[in-house]
Design a protein that fits this description.
alpha/beta, Rossmann fold, nine-stranded mixed β-sheet, two-stranded antiparallel sheet, 19% strand
Length: 340
């Protein structure tokens, strides 16, 4: 991690930009993905852990386009999905992603991975990247979020009603409910949430099986290559503050979220709960309860569509190839009607 921190600090010294203006000039450098991807580090105001950054990653269409997508990753994650970016580019979208504060390219030595006390802390990162996208000529923007990124952008969209810098929202298996037994929701979660008010740094296991990560990574059973330091098979412990932030965000959703832009909610047709490795891991959502996603999505107040994907994995665009082809077809057919 020491060399990783040095690399990030190197980029930091090169790519400091002011976020005070939507028209700030951002200096890009070659991204770790290569293949024409570029990145820029944005320095944000410090928080309770000290220095904070987020990272813009982008790749543009060969021909000039005024359409763009901004992708927001999930928990224990960062942007690495090159195939997704290329599909958007083929459809005429300039592609942007953000590694949120304390994730992936944005992680700093003074920080704990994923550490947040309120999901609104991420709004500054999203505002900044959308402002840069607008300044760079994006007139029509699809805001896309996966898992916790889906919950974050849903809350963000409701908070920005009337001041949106985006035109439609895509939610890929959004983290709309804690996938724990109902007895724990009624007993343990309230205790943790209460304790988090005074002791947000207390940690607890994230409770995620390594099997999902093994179903994705090329070195195990999957077909994708990514940095296991930034997206390990076993997620690092989470703070009570993070659990409280997620709980309060989901509670806000359950009370109704007014979103004034079109929303597409995609999720797998079934959840799976394997205890040991089998190819069943390729056939469903091994992280979230898809029935709860569909149920909670109905608390969106506005124009929304919900669609189940047969055979979809948790990150739908990392599913087996025939399934993700259906996912892309669904996304782009919907986008043609809603991102104009």
């Amino acid at each position: 991690m020491h060399s990783l921190s040095k690399t990030l600090l190197f980029y930091l010294t090169l790519t400091v930009v002011s976020i005070g203006s939507a028209h700030a000039q951002v200096t890009y450098f070659a991204d770790i993905l290569g293949n024409g991807f570029k990145q820029a580090t944005i320095v944000q105001p410090a928080d309770y852990e000290g220095s904070v950054t987020c990272t813009i990653i982008k790749k543009q269409t060969p021909e000039k386009s005024n359409k763009a997508v901004l992708y927001v990753h999930g928990f224990n994650d960062y942007f690495f999905q090159e195939e997704m970016a290329e599909r958007y580019i083929q459809e005429g979208y300039n592609f942007y992603a953000v590694d949120l504060r304390k994730y992936g390219r944005s992680f700093l030595a003074n920080q704990k991975f994923n550490n947040v006390r309120d999901l609104s802390e991420y709004f500054a990162d999203i505002d900044t990247v959308l402002s840069v996208m607008k300044a760079e000529g994006s007139e029509k923007i699809l805001l896309s979020g996966h898992s916790s990124g889906g919950l974050i952008i849903s809350l963000y969209a409701a908070e920005r009603n009337g001041k949106e810098m985006f035109d439609a929202i895509l939610l890929n298996s959004p983290f709309f409910d804690l996938n724990v037994k109902s007895v724990l929701k009624k007993t343990a979660i309230p205790v943790i949430v209460k304790r988090a008010e005074k002791h947000p740094e207390t940690t607890i296991s994230a409770g995620l099986s390594p099997l999902y990560g093994e179903s994705l990574h090329k070195d195990a059973h999957g077909e994708w290559t990514y940095n296991l330091g930034w997206k390990p098979h076993i997620a690092p412990p989470v703070n009570f503050g993070w659990i409280r932030a997620i709980h309060l965000g989901q509670l806000k959703l359950s009370q109704g979220l007014q979103i004034d832009k079109p929303v597409l909610v995609l999720h797998s047709a079934k959840s799976i709960d394997e205890k040991k490795w089998s190819d069943v891991m390729f056939t469903g959502d091994a992280v979230l309860n898809v029935e709860e996603i569909a149920r909670q999505a109905q608390n969106i107040v506005g124009q929304y569509s919900i669609q189940a994907i047969q055979g979809g994995m948790h990150d739908l665009i990392l599913s087996r190839k025939p399934v993700r082809e259906e996912v892309y077809s669904t996304i782009f057919n919907w986008a043609k009607r809603n991102v104009k």
